[in-house]
Amino acid sequence: MGSVCYLNGTYQATGEARISPLDRGFIFGDGIYEVIPVYGGCLFRLDEHLQRLDDNLAEVRIKQPLKREQWREVLNEIVARNQETHGAEQSVYLQVTRGVAERDHGFPDSHVEPTLFIMSSPLKPLPADIAEKGVAAITHEDIRWKNCHIKSTSLLGNILLRQYAYDEHAAEAILIRDGEVTEGAASNLFAIIDGVLITPPKGPLLLPGITRDLILELAQQHQIAACEAFITPAQLKGAEEIWLTSSTKEILPVTTLNGNAVNDGKPGKRWREMSHHYQVYKQQLRDSP
Ligand SMILES: Cc1ncc(COP(=O)(O)O)c(C=O)c1O
Predict the structure, then answer these.
(1) Domain that holds residue 63
(2) CATH code, domain carrying 178
(3) Is the domain of 162 the same as that of 112?
(4) What is the tens place of the pLDDT at every residue in 272-285?
(5) DSSP characters for 229-244?
(6) Ligand 1 site, residue 186, Cβ cutoff 6 A
(7) Fewest CB within 10 A of the end CB: N or C in the chain?
C-alpha cells in the first residue's frame, strides 16, 4: 500500500489524486498550509497548528472546511493509513485553498467551496553529524511581502531565498529587513547574545512558529534566560550561538554565518541543553497513551 492522501472528503493514493487546473491554489497560490510532525504515531502540538490554521484562514477569508474535531479525526486517519508505508514518524502536510473558480483576482462567489488536501511523507531524520558540525547559513535581504505571519502557499520569495542559501552551500538564508533580523526562509531564528536566548518578536514580518513557541516554553520551564527582542545584523554576527527552528528540522545550530565561524564554529552548549529538553518533550508524546 503506497502513500495515502485526503482530497475533499476522499482518501486515495497520493499519486492518483487530481485537482482542477482552475483551483486557485494552482493558479494564484491562494491558500494556507500547515506542516505537522508525527512522533510515535502522534501529531505534535496539533492544537497549536490547528489554531494557527484557523487564524490564517480567517485572516485571508477562506472558509474553514472542517470543525476542530473533524480535523483531528481526518489527520489521525491519514497518520494511521500511512503508518505501514511511512512508519510512526511522519510529516503531515495540509493545505486549504480558496477553491475552483474562473480565474479572477477577486474572491469567487460565496458558493465556491475550499479545496482541502492532506498528505503525509516519512519524517526525514536530522543529519547524523548535526551535533558535531551544525549547519551553515547566509544572511540575505528579505525579499518577501509584508504579511509573513500568514502561512501562505505563495512561497516564491521563500523558495528563492532558500535557493540562494543552497547556491552558497549553506542550509538556510537568515533574513534582514530594515536593519533587523527576522527569521529564516523556512525557519525561525534564535540567538544567544550576552548569555540571553533572544528571538525576534512576533509581528507581520515573521511566521509565528509552533517550534519557536515551544522553545520559549521550554526555556521558561528550565529557567533559561530568554526574551523576545529585535536583533541587528551586527548583534547576530557577534552572537555566542545561533539556532534555526522549524517543525521538521527541530533546532539547527548554525556554526558558520556568511562563511565565518559562529563563536568557535561548533554547536554550542546552550543548543545541546535545549535540544535535550526538546527530545525529552518529543519522547513524552511518543510515550503518551
Ligand atoms: C518562513 C517560516 N518561518 C518559520 C517557520 C517555522 O514554523 P514552525 O515551527 O511552525 O514549523 C517556517 C516553517 O516552515 C517557515 O516557513
Answers:
(1) 4-122
(2) 3.20.10.10
(3) no
(4) 999 999 999 999 99
(5) --B-HHHHHT-SEEEE
(6) yes
(7) C
